[in-house]
Description:
- The protein is an alpha/beta fold.
- The protein has helices at 2-19, 29-41, 48-59, 74-79, 91-98, 137-150, 233-242; strands at residues 23-25, 63-66, 84-88, 105-109, 121-126, 151-161, 171-182, 187-198, 203-213, 219-229, 245-251, 266-272.
- Strand 5, helix 6 and strand 6 (151-161) form a beta-alpha-beta unit.
- It starts with a helix and ends with a strand.
Amino acid sequence: MIKLAFFIVSEYLTQIIMENDFLKSSSNVSSRFYDWEFDLICSEQKKDVNMWLNLAEMFDDPILELCCGSGRITIPLSEKGFKITALDNSAEMLQLLKEKTNENIEIIESDMTSFHLEKKYRFAFISYSSFQQLLSKKEQIKCLKNIHKHLKNGGVLGIDINPCICEEPDVLTKTHLYTAWFPPNNSTVSMFTSHKIDRKNGIKHWQDTYVEIDKKGNETVYQNHVSLKECNHNYMINILEECGFTIIDIFGDFKEGQVTKNSNNIIYLSGKKLI
Ligand SMILES: C[S@@+](CC[C@H](N)C(=O)[O-])C[C@H]1O[C@@H](n2cnc3c(N)ncnc32)[C@H](O)[C@@H]1O
């Protein structure tokens, strides 16, 4: 019965999407729904916060968080007293962080491949597959070499990679993922996702559509595009070595367990080699 209701809603909304002239496609769409959606559907990824807290305790501040987004991890770290520089290239995501920030956080709007900061850090990290948003090896090397420059001697870099992004069919046509109440606007949001995998370049492209219906029945449609590069285990080990890092540990989950063929997250911890 529930499945049937979802199917009918999904079919109806797909129709709206196809007919709607008022289709918004802008860069701040992901920030509009990010915190809310993360809470709604990312129950597994949420467990990373404790791991980053443990690692911060182990390696100490000052900490550099690349791709901090709206501060999902920045805030808990700063509330534990860690001094943290939070860097992201999205003004909209950083605006969300600014609304929750405190004296332990320094916010920098910059690209992870080209930032330049005066400070040097004991610990740097990139959570939630964000490193994979760099779609070429050239960009990834630029980023890693830049981080290397910003680490103190003996400093450590942590990167959370999703190794499974391309383990799916080449194409997923628009599929209804959820319909849920969106409290900030007292509206209802239905989310549809689709993807295409470019096997040649190892890149997965998602297109997500959000249909928001307010209390008066007005609909607004938003689109968001995200692409991630496949980074397999050997690739990560080699690129880190190539950029002046030595692997010090690799976890296959957020409880610091071993890597298995079922690991959905692989966390690479590497130290700055002295060169
Ligand atoms: C999936 S979100 C993750 C946010 C946060 N780390 C978390 O775990 O909730 C990815 C973030 O990476 C940022 N990002 C993507 N490419 C970037 C780049 N080249 N330089 C800096 N930030 C980037 C996006 O703006 C976005 O905030």
